[in-house]
Amino acid sequence: MPTERAVNPVTGGSLLADRAYEEMKGAVLANRLRPGDSLSVPALAVQMGISRSPVREAVQRLIHDGLATHVPHRGAVVATVDLEDVRQLYTVREALEGLAARLATERLDATKVAELRALLEEHERLVASGYDEKRHIEMDMAYHRLIREVAGNTHLSAALENIHGKAHLALHSLWRSPEAARLAVEEHRRVFAAMTAGDAEAAERAAGEHIRRLRIRLSQAVAAGPEPRPDRSTVRPLPEEAAPES
Amino acid sequence: MPTERAVNPVTGGSLLADRAYEEMKGAVLANRLRPGDSLSVPALAVQMGISRSPVREAVQRLIHDGLATHVPHRGAVVATVDLEDVRQLYTVREALEGLAARLATERLDATKVAELRALLEEHERLVASGYDEKRHIEMDMAYHRLIREVAGNTHLSAALENIHGKAHLALHSLWRSPEAARLAVEEHRRVFAAMTAGDAEAAERAAGEHIRRLRIRLSQAVAAGPEPRPDRSTVRPLPEEAAPES
DNA sequence: CGACCCTATGTTGCATGCAATGTTTCGGGC
DNA sequence: GCCCGAAACATTGCATGCAACATAGGGTCG
């Protein structure tokens, strides 16, 4: 008995399944739900006050995205990414980001250059003025997103977006570092330079190099000592950002 | 009231949703369902003698795979791929197949070399002895599949598999050619040579080149005169391979 | 003859019931 | 105290009902 039904503005925007998906995905990417946490369809349905159908759909999408795995009779669990996964993920990402940078270089126009520069400079200011994990990640993602948008290849974008999601998940459980943020921006700057110089080959190399270095730094950090990860397996209420109880 | 229920051997093998998905995917890839054909959930459910739930799930997976698109209140339709899609698809595929070839080269062992050689030679025999569209496509897919299997990168495989599906769909609606089959095998042979020589860089280049040439040949063929494609939009019974009515 | 409204039809997304199946736990026997 | 069996429990996948909504088609009125 839903108190009120979300209206469907034709282009499925606020369908329950979508909202459930977005909410859960957000929780996973924001590390509010951690690898190993169980995703019980019935429990989540009750929590969100909706039926199991849309929740089931959302969970299946998460699984399809590689953000969760399906454990036969124990509900789905948030995916656990190990170091090998990360290596593989970044190997693919290296090739794809390189390609994106090359394509983007060939399609760059003044408007996009300005947007890229603005993003980059804001990111540089951010990193220079202390370390804000959340903001850094946002800026980083925005930068890469803009590049693949400029590249203008639907299928490349889709593939990259998948990789990004999983990579993001990996970062959460394995690593975080202020120093890395600085290096990331520096490397972004290098890709930007090659792109605005119109050198597609160099842009491709720089972008690939950026991801490769990311992978190496990540491996080293993990080898040195992985983040402690408290193991929990029970369902908790989705930790809200700040939720007035209704 | 299903006459009999498919048993679930834990590792979801013969679930109704899976079977529906496989059946529909097969129909699309085999061109029995063509771009533009409508996929009505209720109709398909009746056809297969199951309820709408698993069918709905299957259709959503197809959409997620890019093999179908969602038209708001008219049911889903088999995706239509135009030339631009193909170009984009093959651009990405070029990078990924190249990467796969490089990785595979680094992990090759005697067993895999033998398997590759066997596949290749069978393919050469096939092409030399006339043209069998179906068999050619099978061999081609098997070859690429084996390479990405040897490459041993889960996420790369997943990405490539997606691309493959859509590319396959594109080939059906746009193109077929005996000459192309010959060239494909020849280029496969070149990749194989580089791989067995242990030259990962050359393998990557050869694989990329293979896909790039494919893309070019495809574009030219389409420009010269696309295959006639009868437009149909009604739901027909899934054309069975050879179906005794029950 | 054309524009318009109104109904019939088809699709969609959600809720819910249910049987099969696997897991976990708890109690009893050794 | 430990092992084994059984029942309670949770999850799963499928079937089905249903109300909202959109489109198409036809009949009517101007």
Automatic annotation (TrEMBL), chains A, B:
MF-aspect GO terms: DNA binding; DNA-binding transcription factor activity
The protein's matches in Pfam families, at most eight in alphabetical order, are given as: FCD, GntR
Keyword Metal-binding in record: no
Region entry Disordered, spans:
219-246
Top-level taxon in the UniProt lineage: Bacteria
Task: List the keywords (alphabetical).
Answer: DNA-binding, Transcription, Transcription regulation
Q: Which SUPFAM superfamilies match?
A: GntR ligand-binding domain-like, Winged helix' DNA-binding domain
- Boundaries of each HTH gntR-type domain copy? 14-81
Q: What is this protein called?
A: GntR family transcriptional regulator
Q: Which organism is it from?
A: Streptomyces cacaoi
